[in-house]
Design goal:
mainly alpha, 10 helices, Arc Repressor Mutant, subunit A, 0% strand, Tetracycline Repressor, domain 2
Length: 198
Amino acid sequence: MEQTEREEKRSMRRRPGAERLLEVAADLFYREGIRAVGVDTISQRAGVSKRTLYNRFGGKDELVAEYLRRRDERWRAYLQGVTESVVEPREKLLAVFGAYGEWLVGEDFRGCAFANAAAEIPDHNHPARIVAQRHKEGIKEHLAGLAKDAEFDEPESLAERLLLLLEGATATAAMRRRREPLDVARSIALELLDARRH
């Protein structure tokens, strides 16, 4: 699909009926799980016909993918804002751990939406699974960019290690319903950065 066609489809999804569908679907998918929620429930709760859902999204698969795209956009904008507010390049990497703690751990925290989606959708070619994979790659690229700006050797390798710390801490925080695992991960990250100090 060409870029302009994708952009046109996404602009159609920003119409009021489509927006209501997305808001309701996002809440239900995250709280109850993707497989547990059907298009009947989504359209009924949104007060929008199933026909509108199929016209705007083509079906549930693309609705799930769009829900994750929106979440990815919001998360990346938030993360960008957090890291840009920090002056010291090295501290920007550590600020990511604080950002995860603020964003992910709350009363309704049910783990990472992208990891949850990947766990529910075994098909690697499913559009939502592709969005989830790109999200993780995007976070790694952001970390690598920060590591490069901080003049660490092998920034991609460092980014991979930091992402694994973040992923493990996020999963553990979801299980324990506490943010301490992210604090521990931050302290391990600090040790890792200190070990790589020139």
